[in-house]
Design goal:
Blueprint lengths: L3 E4 L5 E3 L5 E9 L5 E6 L9 E3 L2 E4 L8 E8 L6 E9 L1 E10 L15 E10 L4 E7 L2 E2 L6 E5 L8 E6 L8 E9 L7 E9 L12 H5 L17 E9 L1
Parallel strand pairs: 2-8
Antiparallel strand pairs: 1-3, 3-6, 4-7, 5-6, 7-8, 9-10, 10-14, 11-12, 11-15, 13-14, 15-16, 16-17
């Protein structure tokens, strides 16, 4: 008789990096008794994989180990049986932000009385567990008529949140922090600080890094800053893991 099997695991399996994962595949039919093998959809099994019959164990899993794993049963009678599960390893990475209007664009101005939008984006796995929090000078922010917090449609721009400051006032100067976290926990949060304040003295720009703001490039996980005296404002950003 042709082989049949079942997996004693969930699909998908969402785990934190560093955890040990065990996949169990059992035979439910087939004569003669089928042999069981594990394969990975893309590439070979991780070198650290431990196999014991139909049981596969991955110790200290990393993002590189994520993917679809399949158990195949074959007894050379009929077609082989195959069951699969997808392993998802939680991750937060590649934080970036941009400001509208762009303070480094010749035709854009940040002015008192105008709207300023701070956008924050990160790559999250799994994306549905991503949550954002906004803070001003360390205190939690909630949406109001003048400060509107939105999270963009994930189908359009996944992993993005916006803080719209309507009718910018001097009292709005301060440090705004966007914190990205995963509901499942086990992953360090990513925090992006943007400091908006009145500028005194000359512009103090580090190298050519002003392009980071205008082109919305990915920022490294390290602290640095940008300042400008354009329109009397300075802007400083800092990206770090909490």
């Amino acid at each position: 008789a042709s082989p049949s099997i079942k997996l004693l695991v969930d699909d998908p399996i969402v785990v934190n990096p560093g955890e040990a994962i065990t996949l169990v595949c059992v035979t439910t039919g087939g004569e003669p008794a089928p042999s069981l093998t594990w394969v990975r959809s893309f590439g070979t099994l991780p070198e650290k994989t431990v196999l014991n019959g139909g049981t596969l164990t991955i110790p200290a899993i990393t993002s590189d180990d994520a993917g679809t794993y399949s158990c195949i049963a074959n007894n050379n009678v009929g077609n082989p049986a195959k069951k699969s599960t997808n392993i998802i390893v939680r991750a937060l990475k590649k934080g970036r932000f941009w400001i509208t209007p762009d303070p480094y664009h010749k035709d854009d101005n940040i002015q008192i009385g105008r709207e300023v939008k701070i956008s924050c984006q990160v790559e999250a796995v799994p994306s549905e567990e991503l949550t954002f929090s906004w803070f001003k000078n360390g205190r939690p922010l909630r949406s109001s008529e003048r400060m509107v917090i939105t999270q963009t449609d994930p189908d359009v721009s996944p992993g993005t949140t916006n803080l719209d400051i309507i009718d910018l006032k001097f009292t709005d100067f301060g440090t705004y922090t966007c914190v990205a976290s995963l509901k499942g926990g086990g992953i360090s949060d990513i925090s992006i600080d943007v400091n908006i304040s009145s500028s005194t003295g000359k512009s103090n720009t580090i190298g050519d890094k002003r392009n980071i703001l205008s082109s919305s490039k990915t920022l490294p996980l390290e602290s640095t800053h940008l300042t400008t005296d354009r329109c009397g404002f300075s802007i400083e950003w800092k990206l770090h893991e909490v």
